[in-house]
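Let's practice the habit of predicting before peeking. Look at the sequence and jot down your guess about where helices and strands might fall. Then scroll down.
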Amino acid sequence: MTVDENALTISANASRRRHPGTSPRPIAIGSSKHRDLFCATFLDSRYPYDPARIAWPSLTEPERARLAGLPFWNEAVEVESITSRTVADAVSLERDPLIREAIAVQAEEEARHAALLRSLFGAYDIPVPQVAEAPPSRHPMWAFYHSGIGECFDSFFAFGLFALARQTGFLPPALIEVFEPVMQEEVRHIQFFVNWAAFRRARAPWYHRPAMALRAGAIVAHHAFGRLKTARALGQSGEQSDHFTLSGAQAVGEDLSLGAFLDLCLSENDRRFDVYDPRLLRPRFMPETIRWVRRIVPGPRAKGMNPRR
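Done guessing? Here is the structure:
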């Protein structure tokens, strides 16, 4: 796969074609206009590629060894397997045909992520254990919530990790180019999920909303606790963290402080979401929490990274 145009630019143009004005009128969350906007933005910003036809760039042996040595491949394969099944199971539960179409597209893209990883492993001889197919969920809709909220957490850190790999030269530019559209695809998934969840909550009867909020809050708390343990592990030399995006930061930027890494995650998160229509919701929990945490976490502010020698 050769990227002719940055995925950020593609996504931005898809949004601006529909809303060329600089100050579009606000829309009511839960309205038909809201549904049309978040679904159309998601569907119009698709980036077509076939993992089986990617021309993986040649790597030197040190570059290949660095890539193969990243500590998160096993978990990444497992997460993609579960997410792919979860999103596919959610398609049939959605009654709205436009939203169902969007979730079906996301299911295809999640399956494509898993195929991309398999292609990567084959191209660079990265040994990863075979992962069994994820079983169907007993509660598909709440599994979709769990998956979407988890993606909000993990992708926030993944954006910083990807930027770190690019700035330090940990990965060669040709490989960064291959993965850039995939990273922006994660942004699309998150933005769709956040708006879908808000739309669904706004459309629910008022007496269902407290239970929905409590259930969603419990899922957020579950993921937040797991990432808190990860952040603590990252700050302790020699510890292995639980979640692959933060454990990867240790491997990619050995001299990077936790505070500087969080700064990088914040700036990358803002940069990637800023290309979309400002009337769409975006995840707030992680950015707002990290901005608060950053006040008490020691370490210098993030600056330009020194290239890897």
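How did you do? The chain has eleven helices and no strands.
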